## 1
Amino acid sequence: MLFLKRILFFCFLTTPSFLVLPLKKEGLLKMLCVTNIKNCVIISLNMINLKEQLNCSQYEAVRTIDRPVLVIAGAGSGKTRVIEYKVLYLIQNNFSPSSILLLTFTRKSAEEMLSRAGKHDPRCTEVEGGTFHSFCFKILKRYSRIIGISNSFIILDEGDAEDLLKKCASELKFFNKEKKTPNKRTLRKIISMSINKDMTIKEVIQRYYPYYIEFSEDIGKIREKYFEYKINKNYLDYDDLLIYMKVLLEDEGFRNMISERYRYIMVDEYQDTNKLQGDITYYLAERHKNITVVGDDAQSIYNFRGASHENIMKFPNLFPECKIVRL
Ligand SMILES: Nc1ncnc2c1ncn2[C@@H]1O[C@H](COP(=O)(O)OP(=O)(O)OP(=O)(O)O)[C@@H](O)[C@H]1O
Ligand SMILES: [Mg+2]
């Protein structure tokens, strides 16, 4: 107790904003960490012994931080755990939380991962984590002017996008009682797929909706009208968030700036990324190459959205120096 009092007294007298005092206990390196010296808040952190928490392959993936890492494994084999502990590993090695970016497919999964890591070290909860769309939204709100888009844009959710497509289709007198024309939801899927998979409308229809082939040209016109509306009204749908993010990242100055900001990129469920998301991930990490992606090449639930296993297959070509870890 006297020892602790002396530490607290020392805190008031000295200026450093961060002081860590290691104490060895029960296989864990217990850290008594004194942060925010002015208010003298004391937090107890566990310096996790990774070897006890991870198997050998997970451990290898977590500790490799200076090159690209591709973790491939089947369902439930501990891929997400690699990301969770890699965040923790970086934080406990004093990398700034704001330099880490974690991209996932649901906001909930990002929150869960960070809050689990945060139980070992509260700084993990400061790491930026979210979906591709939420990340792109945030960046575009700040930087869209670089590519000539006002940042007062309005987001169209899926329902809004379908309704607008219906309006465009009606204006073009597309819906026809005598013929079975695709409904607004199918129109949205066809158009979205063509964007996310980087295919023409005709290619998408030929491959996924061959019975609508006679409408290919008309759907192309609906798409044009829909785009016109969005531009005039400053609307962005979910696909636009990805498209404009990619356009932004094609600007070398911006790309360099963003890679300075986010030095460590991690992507969960990489098998569910589509072509656009794969390109965005590549641009984010192209410069420093500190990227870890985890995925299962046998499961993809977002195929309808243009998710492509190709991103996993192509990862070693994009990053030839990558370490491939199979769990
Ligand atoms: N080395 C380990 N030691 C103890 N528990 C582990 C280990 N690796 C994974 N687990 C546990 O196994 C379960 C599945 O792990 P995790 O969610 O990381 O797998 P996943 O490969 O991401 O699964 P999914 O394919 O569903 O995304 C979790 O409860 C996780 O905490
Ligand atoms: Mg997982």
## 2
Amino acid sequence: MHEMSLAEGVRGIVEDAARAHGGRRISAVVLEIGELAAVEVEALTFCLEVVLRGSVAEGARIDIEATPGTGWCMQCAATVPVAALYDACPQCGSYQVQPTGGTEMRVKAVELE
Ligand SMILES: [Zn+2]
């Protein structure tokens, strides 16, 4: 389950942020998750609860913002919306679509107490 390693990555980032601000506690973490990032939000939230226990971000609110998937269609020579990885282009039906957006998860912001 790769959500667990993602959650551990998030913990590292928020701990660094807390340290950079004099060891203050984290009250909220804002995550941006791309629709093409193949992240199970429910599983990730569960893993974060487990992983953040005992850390500076224990009990922190987790806000999740979904970013839409986009891809570059070679046939249309245009950026098109993509609902899932390896989907066909919604405009021309071609499968030559290169994912360009919404493929990543990142920590967008943390709120300090
Ligand atoms: Zn197309």
